[in-house]
Amino acid sequence: MKTIKNFRNDLLKRNEVKVVMSAGKNPGLATAAKNIAEHLKTKEENVVVRELKSSFGRDTFLIDAFVYDSVMDKEKIEPRKKEKKKEGEQAAPSAPAAAVAPAGGKK
Hints:
The chain is an alpha+beta fold. It has a single domain (2-77), classed as 2-Layer Sandwich (Alpha-Beta Plaits). It has 2 helices and 4 strands. It is elongated and about 75 Å long.
């Protein structure tokens, strides 16, 4: 693993990192975050992989990531992931029940 860019952003309390990693196949976001954490000697939960790029037929991957100072700093800045609804759970009705016309009424 080779670091191309390591920029310190003091306002957002993070390092913006670009690294090149070689692997036989696409490492995936979780493995890339783990390898960056080991390379920079930080905790894995402080790393957010933004982009993982490669070219066809190459075994090198360009990884763009943010390394936050703490988990709290990460939670303040990074957007939260949407939670999937459970099967039994339904959305709230958009119109009040009184505003809906009766089903058996004539026009």
